[in-house]
Specification:
about 325 residues; alpha/beta; Four Helix Bundle (Hemerythrin (Met), subunit A); Rossmann fold; 8-stranded mixed beta sheet; about 50% helix; binds guanosine-5'-diphosphate; binds magnesium ion
């Protein structure tokens, strides 16, 4: 059985709801990637320079980024030299399989949960990336798993940010420990950790500020949040997740690099996949930063968050390439 057929079989075995979410969330990505690739079948003469150039363009248009695109093309070329006269269909099989290998080259680290008290999760990212909305979505998800959740509104720099999270707290029934506007975000984290310990909270979601203007400041601020939470709760922060707007493409990737240089990231949440996101950023992030994509955001409501699944992703963006031809 070909790689694409196996991918399809795995995908079709998933829950209806998950399938629908992936297919609609990655529709734009499929149009820029799978559909474009499919167009190439009419002029396919083998994996030659023309083909590879065209493929590079499609990968770049999908936000895969030049380094990752080059790597994928090199591997494909190498693999195909062993198979002269390879059909378009099998070339596509190799291509998508190589994309999976590129993603899997660095092992995904699992989410860390604190067995002996509250799990402290820091959400980081620039203004507007979707941190506050993602905090609400994660709260809904964890409450659905029977966990006790609390918020820390530690984005003390953006006017209205604290109230925005507090409102989500009221809607969802999640206590919200508020920072002081223009105050020290770390002070709010300390208050939140103490509240979590006293109230047997399982998951403490900390909505922080992300100011990229000055890397040294950012680094100091992030490391202070790490330090103060570790003082309150052993092993905290247990998870540090970067919230990234997927529609910002390569710009988002450079933001991610600055954060990754400034702190230890344990996961990425890609928001706004329901928008014009092209999807390739998933591969670029994993390949360049070695940080796994944990969740994807597909809308503005608390239910619009899904765990990232590599196979569903690959199937959704390459849908249509599985037909023999
Ligand atoms: N379409 C869509 N909009 C989102 C998503 N996540 C966040 N948003 C919207 O993006 C805007 C900024 O989100 P917010 O959570 O306030 O960002 P923050 O500044 O990082 O806290 C808001 O209008 C959100 O409703 C998503 O996954 N899809
Ligand atoms: Mg916010």
């Amino acid at each position: 059985m070909s790689f694409l057929s196996k991918l399809k079989e795995t995908f079709l075995g998933k829950k209806e709801e998950e399938k629908a979410v992936y297919l609609s969330g990655f529709k734009k990505a499929r149009q820029t990637f799978g559909d474009q690739l499919n167009e190439m079948k009419y002029e396919f003469k083998g994996v030659d320079d023309d083909f590879l150039e065209q493929l590079t363009i499609i990968l770049l248009e999908s936000d895969v980024g030049i380094e990752t695109a080059d790597l994928i093309c090199d591997r494909l070329k190498e693999k195909c030299t062993d198979f002269p006269g390879l059909t378009f269909h099998w070339t596509m099989n190799f291509l998508i399989e190589i994309m999976q290998e590129v993603y899997n080259e660095f092992e995904d680290t699992p989410i860390v949960y604190n067995e002996n008290g509250p799990t402290v999760i820091l959400l980081e990212g620039v203004n507007g990336s979707g941190k506050t909305t993602t905090a609400a979505k994660l709260a809904k998800m964890y409450m659905g798993q029977g966990k006790k959740v609390a918020f820390v509104a530690a984005d003390t720099f953006r006017a209205g940010a604290i109230d925005q999270l507090a409102k989500w707290g009221e809607r969802l029934g999640v206590p919200c420990i508020k920072g002081r506007e223009n105050g020290d975000p770390s002070a709010a984290i300390v208050d939140g950790c103490r509240f979590a310990k006293e109230n047997n909270i399982d998951i403490l979601l900390c909505d922080t500020a992300g100011r990229l203007q000055n890397k040294v400041n950012l680094m100091n601020e992030l490391s202070k949040m790490n330090r103060v939470s570790a003082r309150e709760i052993e092993g905290a922060p247990h998870d540090v997740w970067l919230v990234l707007d997927a529609t910002t493409g390569q710009n988002g990737l450079s933001q991610a690099e600055v954060f990754a240089d400034s702190t230890t990231l344990s996961g990425i949440i890609l928001t706004k996949m329901d928008g014009t996101a092209k999807g390739g950023i998933v591969l670029a992030i994993k390949h360049k930063l070695h940080v796994p994509v944990l969740f994807i955001g597909l809308g503005e409501q608390p239910d619009d968050l899904k765990p990232f699944d590599l196979q569903s992703y690959l199937y959704s963006i390459s849908q249509g390439l599985d037909s023999n031809g």
